[in-house]
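thread: overnight batch results

M.L. [08:02]
morning all. the overnight job finished for the chain we discussed friday. pasting input first so we're all looking at the same thing
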Amino acid sequence: MVIDSPEHSPERSTSRFFADAMLARLARWLRVLGFDTRFDPTIDDPQLVRLAERDQRWLLTRDRALVAQRRPSRCVLIVADAPLEQLREVVERCRPQAPAALFTRCLVCNSPLREVPREAAEPWLPERARSIPGPVRYCPHCQRHYWPGTHTWRMRERLSATLPEWFSEG
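M.L. [08:03]
and the structure it wrote out:
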């Protein structure tokens, strides 16, 4: 269910989201795709709606009462239980553009990641990851490092199965 007003139609949507406390795993998948996705489970409903409105973000929620009582102007009421099905709902309803690259945001704090030279990242990488080719990225906010590996490959496969129109090989 999409709740929106004419000035916030899906055709004019941004790729910025605010996920409520029930959607932590969805927020993480949106960040994998590079979408600016705020998530803070400590925020109450009035503040959540106020911040989403102020920042012109799509509010993503499973809370029917929040939608009925607070009436956010740009909101997706998520009905699926599984995070990747929820992701599919968001893509179908908000119609964001497919990402140019994956893994460009910190999965924990949402900050944009910076690519770092492999030599500089070596001390932070586990031994088995040091020989894997590909970029190493760093979160300047929470100091986490990200590198390609089996976990990212599995995530890519799951995204490809969920959003084949974005990840087809042709």
